Amino acid sequence: MPTVDEYAERRKTVAAGLAERKLEALFISWSANLRYLSGFTGSNGSLLITPGQTILFTDPRYDVQAREEVSCPVKIAKGPLVFDIAAAIARLKLRRIGYEPVRMTCDLLEALGSRLPARSSMEPVAGWIEELRMIKTEVELDRIRRSVETNSRAFEQAVKHVRPGMREQDLAAELEYRMRRLGAEKPSFETIVAAGTRGALPHAQPTSAALASGNLVVVDMGATQHGYCSDMTRMLFLGSPGAKVKRTYRAVLEAQLAAIDAVRAGVSTAHVDRQARKVLQGYGLDRAFVHSTGHGLGLEIHEPPRIGKRDKGRLSAGMAVTIEPGVYLEGFGGIRIEDTVVVMPSGCEVLTPTSKELRLI
Length: 361
Description:
- By secondary structure, this protein is of the alpha+beta class.
- Helix content is 34%, strand content 22%.
- It has helices at residues 4-16, 31-38, 63-69, 81-91, 106-113, 128-134, 138-159, 168-181, 243-262, 269-282, and strands at 25-28, 45-49, 54-58, 74-76, 96-99, 121-124, 186-187, 192-195, 216-221, 223-225, 228-229, 232-237, 294-296, 303-307, 320-323, 326-329, 333-336, 339-344, 347-350, 359-360.
- It folds into two domains: 4-133, 3-Layer(aba) Sandwich (Creatine Amidinohydrolase, Chain A, domain 1); 135-360, CATH 3.90.230.10.
């Protein structure tokens, strides 16, 4: 995991930015942001950051764990955390406390707000920590690389067992079993295995449907290792593909390579998306591409930036993103090819080592 000093430096950055946002404190309850700022991995915790100190609040189940993982003071609450958080705000005489409006539940906001002194107020601060998280440190990129490598190794091991008659859910289970055996804590998301016409569903859930000869099979998988995610999509074909499969696969591959070639620091995310769509348009398949070209990843599988045609962001060096154009045709199936890449000053580093060739079974 990142060093204790790295967590402390992140908290210092946040503390230094409070004044310009006219805040006296920032309250963090979202798990990914909590881990990013403290290293805490428990399921129940909150962080209060002020210019002078940071306090982690959790419950007795995490007493030992919190003290092992966290360098800031830890408050073990004997009841609901909100009581101790409100008491700390009152004791520190904090007036304007920022919170995460997209991440915080209405119940928690109401419970905390109702216990604050009359002079104190909760102020929404959207996307601040997520913006910091977009640029990965070398330590974070190393974790993502390891996750990517584990994911690809799991794919290579599992695909050796694919045969006609195997069920989608059995292949998904095999993929997840392999990634765990190789060191992953869990999948980054529910593994997608979609065979035949079901491949036209971009986020299909694995079913008891059997893989059959002549099937295209979409495999979209990711591993979480040391807290960091990876994401990859590869295609299988059971048998010998016909002309339509080959042409469609070639179109998606060319679109993915064009988008990857466009990735570099300073480029707009919309430009990267546009490069993939231009290729698919040349094949008459642009209307069958129904989602964005990619997204950021890190402590969460979907993080900013989003790489879509209406997005206005720009890429910066150190961002880890996916590039994943796809084509989805009802009655035919779907084809998606996805890599995890790191944005560099003059290009990108493709982390995914797995061949992009259509894998014939």
